[in-house]
Hints:
The complex is a heterodimer of chains A (406) and B (295).
Chain A: H1 2-5, E1 15-24, E2 27-37, E3 42-46, H2 53-61, E4 68-73, E5 76-77, E6 88-91, H3 103-113, H4 119-129, H5 145-157, E7 163-167, H6 175-192, E8 195-200, H7 203-209, E9 212-217, E10 220-225, H8 227-232, H9 237-242, E11 247-256, E12 260-265, E13 268-273, E14 283-288, E15 294-296, E16 306-319, E17 323-330, E18 334-341, E19 354-360, E20 365-366, H10 376-379, H11 388-405
Parallel strand pairs in A: 3-8, 3-9, 6-7, 7-8
Antiparallel strand pairs in A: 1-2, 1-4, 4-5, 9-10, 11-12, 11-14, 12-13, 14-20, 15-19, 16-17, 16-19, 17-18
Chain B: H1 6-15, H2 37-58, H3 77-80, H4 88-119, H5 125-131, H6 134-137, H7 140-154, H8 160-184, H9 188-196, H10 201-229, H11 233-238, H12 245-255, H13 259-293
Helix pairs in contact in B: 2-13, 4-8, 4-10, 4-12, 8-10, 9-10
Amino acid sequence: xxxxxxxxxxxxxxxxxxxxxxxxxxxxxxxxxxxxxxxxxxxxxxxxxxxxxxxxxxxxxxxxxxxxxxxxxxxxxxxxxxxxxxxxxxxxxxxxxxxxxxxxxxxxxxxxxxxxxxxxxxxxxxxxxxxxxxxxxxxxxxxxxxxxxxxxxxxxxxxxxxxxxxxxxxxxxxxxxxxxxxxxxxxxxxxxxxxxxxxxxxxxxxxxxxxxxxxxxxxxxxxxxxxxxxxxxxxxxxxxxxxxxxxxxxxxxxxxxxxxxxxxxxxxxxxxxxxxxxxxxxxxxxxxxxxxxxxxxxxxxxxxxxxxxxxxxxxxxxxxxxxxxxxxxxxxxxxxxxxxxxxxxxxxxxxxxxxxxxxxxxxxxxxxxxxxxxxxxxxxxxxxxxxxxxxxxxxxxxxxxxxxxx
Amino acid sequence: xxxxxxxxxxxxxxxxxxxxxxxxxxxxxxxxxxxxxxxxxxxxxxxxxxxxxxxxxxxxxxxxxxxxxxxxxxxxxxxxxxxxxxxxxxxxxxxxxxxxxxxxxxxxxxxxxxxxxxxxxxxxxxxxxxxxxxxxxxxxxxxxxxxxxxxxxxxxxxxxxxxxxxxxxxxxxxxxxxxxxxxxxxxxxxxxxxxxxxxxxxxxxxxxxxxxxxxxxxxxxxxxxxxxxxxxxxxxxxxxxxxxxxxxxxxxxxxxxxxxxxxxxxxxxxxxxxxxxxxxxxxxxxxxxxxxxxx
Lengths: 406, 295
């Protein structure tokens, strides 16, 4: 390992996980995970808390040892090496800046440990990259959260690791700062050409920054691909709801052609393209994204290639500037979510209005899940589910209760 | 993380020792004393605390003979002739040797135990944690007698070595408790970051763990020294013919305590006072500097 840690990596390296399993006393965090990240890519591991994503990151960093499996960085097996022997650096969730050292010494720490020439000069260069060189002589406690985050980033990239691990580094920042840091991170990644492995539970963050997103749930990767591919064609109910919102329906396949399958959803035939459906027979779950739905206040004329549901009643209208979210209760099917662009002034329907929805049959998708395995809460997109948003809401409620008790 | 960065948390912990640093989020309920009730009570309480110290200090200047009980007139003689009392300076020296050695041993061992108890999971961890409290909870007489019996069984000759062993034993508990709190407040991610940044285990310990634990370790060492320096009961059981400062005073008390004892006690007190003042002043200066740097 001496050779690879003693010099700067010229570019990122591939990361390969082969059959990684990690068991803690009492539970299995990761179950035989296979993952391959090509050099130079920005890869995001996305999932709810407790899904095993942080454990995966810690295994790659060497801070945990896998129960089984192999970790290869740049083709070299590093499974049995210690963290300080791996060409990997981490930006920790809590930043973990050394409070007793100046910013400059924090950044130079890794260079000094490897006895590389000119650690101070290189540290200044890295601080310039994150535009904090003027604060080099300060202590971490004298910096704001966003500045600390950038120092943590500089401290990691100054070592030019083959692989940079980011453990929800933007979680503690406010929304505006987070957007700004997302852009900066992306720019830096392109500039220095390192392989980034980013762990997050923020789906928007994962989608805006990463080339490839892997959605993780319960220690397994549910689906992996480019952000737009994951969003437009989710394969499981979990992905469909963790990455944005979805309207999901279940029913038996009643007819099947070379191009499409037709599903009987509470008596209404719904057409889904065959290539966009994972299952083609029996009971299936299908879905469509809320922004693909068009809202009508009068029954639309049936047209080829369009699915129509209704009539139902508008139960909730929430206006959010660019768009309006409508909830429509359709008897026998449940509540649907519709996102409508505000092309006219204000909402087009009010609560209690009779409404229909329709969508282009090409926009639907069929899921791989067995319909009986999909929890009720997921089928009805509102109400508590596994999505990031609902986790955040639940946390806030818990926090408010705690505050009241105090 | 509760939104507080570890860095800031550490600094606050360092400053928490002072009474002025805590600003309560809501004002406490005020107890109303009518008229002079509170001032009188406060003065009485302070007098009660300070009179013995003032007495010791004043009577170190007493131009007394063998007995240092009645005021005989002012003199500096006792301060200039401290060691003229037979055995006094020797016993004081012994106390310093025992105190320093026991402090070093107990602080080193106790720090390692504290880190192990917080950072690692192993068998009987909670049992050990509990057992370490026992020496603090056990009456000193029992500890001292028990140890003396063990030394007797082993045939160890009582002397400085047995005193040092005894003091190290009871100081370890206090060190563990003090340092443990500090280790628990240390974000494990800091050490992980050190390992991640190519620090070998020993480099991580000396460059990250140790400096960050230092305030706790220093506090534990001071506590150990203070405990060792004024221990009488356990020492008395395990010292044989060797005298420590407290033992000297105890024996001298039967005949009358010479004023030179007051001199040493006052000197120790003054030294401690100077240390506290220096620490407070540098703390205030640091807080001021920090406040200036932060927007």
